[in-house]
Design goal:
Number of helices: 9
Oligomer: single chain
Radius of gyration: 19 Å
CATH superfamily: Ribokinase
Helix content: 25-40%
Order of helices and strands: EEEHEHEEEHEHEEHHEEEHHHE
Number of strands: 14
Structural class: alpha/beta
Largest sheet: 10 strands, mixed
CATH class: Alpha Beta
Bound molecules: adenosine-5'-diphosphate
Strand content: 15-25%
Strand order of the largest sheet: 5-4-1-8-9-10-11-12-13-14
Length: about 325
């Protein structure tokens, strides 16, 4: 069988969002203007992003036995994600409770609930059932750190390219890094994990080396509208962002990682995969919301064609070498 698939191990939530003119102060009640209820969770968002980018995609995670179970399963299926590895466990589906004010400022309480029931045995079973068709594993940090560490090691043993988006940033067991092929932190995650304040490409390069020193093969530090810095033992390069007019930057990172994973699973060259991820991240900022803003293959191809008229798929565009070898 051909291994062109993506296995995502991670969180699934119902994103319950209230929009108002301003956020309430502690103890205060305000009247809101709008409300949405959509599939979320970094795991599910990245699975949707990978599937929309064209990869056969399996989501391994847990939902509960409540109304939000169907919302989650139907949301994943509607975007083409395989749900055979989603377990229904006792209790309730995870929830992200989000409030957004008129300026786009937000606060979020994530309650893991069913996500806390994902076990290492479940991960092993999902790897065994999908390994013949999977080339890339996507991991984030919204399920138990021990489960993520186990998944990285087991995924690496199964021959997957293991991609870890270390979000939300938290202390990790040091031995996880050797099993991670590609790490994709944003500025604040790279800062929190490395202790280096990442405020631009130069500092991103230093943070990238921190990950390489711990055993990661390739660090991709995403810098929002300033693009991404790629650090490997061979080269350090800055990929400029695709120019877009952002309306809501939520889920840019999930779009980036999902599309990157899909491109790697399709066997594309790493530079091409990074550019596909960056185009997906840029497009996600042009639409409001998280999972509803994730672009499909056609939109990504269109942006790549406009940004790079006449360029072949292997064209690395205006990438700048920051300096030579990283070690
Ligand atoms: P996160 O959502 O995890 O904070 P980033 O904001 O760094 O992640 O976005 C991931 C990628 O998406 C960036 O590397 C960039 O390529 C693209 N992107 C994000 N914001 C913008 C933007 N304002 N303009 C163009 N591209 C963007």
């Amino acid at each position: 069988m051909t291994r062109t698939g993506v296995l995502v191990v991670g969180s699934i939530t119902a994103d319950v969002t209230a929009f108002g003119r301003r956020l309430p102060r502690p103890g205060e009640t305000v009247l809101g203007d709008d409300f949405t209820l959509v599939l979320g969770g970094k795991g599910a968002n990245q699975a949707v992003a990978a599937a929309r980018a064209g990869a056969p995609t399996w989501m391994a995670g847990c939902v509960g036995q409540d109304l939000f179970r169907d919302l989650a399963l139907e949301g994943l299926r509607a975007h083409g994600v395989e749900t055979s590895e989603v377990r229904t466990v006792e209790g309730r589906t995870g929830v992200a409770h989000i409030r957004v004010d008129a300026s786009g400022e937000n606060d979020i309480v994530i309650t893991p609930l069913a996500n806390a029931s994902l076990t290492t045995d479940m991960v092993d079973a999902s790897i065994a059932r999908t390994r013949d068709r999977t080339r890339v594993m996507l991991l984030q940090l919204e399920v138990a750190a021990e489960v993520t560490r186990h998944a990285a090691r087991a995924g690496s043993d199964a021959g997957f390219t293991v991609v870890l988006d270390p979000a939300p940033a938290q202390p990790l067991p040091d031995d996880i890094w050797a099993y991670v092929d590609i790490v994709t932190p944003n500025e604040s995650e790279a800062s929190a994990l490395s202790g280096i304040t990442v405020d631009g490409p130069e500092a991103a390069e230093r943070a990238g080396r921190w990950f390489l020193d711990r055993g990661v093969t390739h660090a991709l530090i995403t810098l929002g509208g300033a693009g991404a810095v790629s650090v490997t033992a061979e080269a350090v390069r800055h990929f400029p962002a695709f120019p877009v007019t952002p309306v809501d930057t939520t889920a840019a990172g999930d779009a980036f990682t999902g599309a990157l994973g899909a491109a790697l699973a399709a066997g594309l060259d790493t530079d091409v995969a990074v550019r596909r991820g960056m185009a997906a991240g840029a497009l996600a900022t042009t639409r409001p919301g998280a999972s509803p803003s994730l672009p499909d293959l056609t939109a990504v191809d269109a942006l790549l064609a406009t940004a790079d008229p006449g360029a072949g798929p292997a064209d690395a565009g205006a990438v700048t070498d920051l300096e030579g070898a990283a070690s």
